[in-house]
Design brief:
Number of domains: 1
Radius of gyration: 16 Å
Shape: globular
Number of helices: 5
């Protein structure tokens, strides 16, 4: 139901404000590979949206919560951590998609 809501929102935005709005991809976040549930959710996403690329996953990381609570970016808080590296990888991926 949640996923359907997101796509209905995109459809509404296309109709009302930006008919050229396109989905670049899906970004799983708060992701952990230690349990089966996140892997199952990722597979559900892939099945539900086969045409939408799955972009870099953002790991579940305490550093993200701490940075946010201190009003800092993850790069300021822990720039060499895995969350910062994942976000940087995602940013590069988005730039590559947008610039073609």
């Amino acid at each position: 139901a949640y996923h359907a809501h997101q796509f209905n929102l995109m459809r509404m935005i296309r109709q009302e404000t930006n008919e050229n709005l396109k989905l670049l991809g899906l970004v799983p976040n708060k992701f952990t590979r230690q349990t089966k549930v996140p892997k199952m959710r990722l597979n559900e996403l892939k099945k539900a949206y086969p045409d939408a690329p799955i972009l870099t996953t953002i790991p579940k990381a305490i550093a993200l919560e701490k940075a946010q609570s201190q009003g800092m970016s993850i790069f300021e808080f822990e720039g060499d951590g895995r969350a910062a590296k994942a976000i940087l990888k995602l940013a590069r991926e988005v730039v590559e998609i947008v610039e073609g």
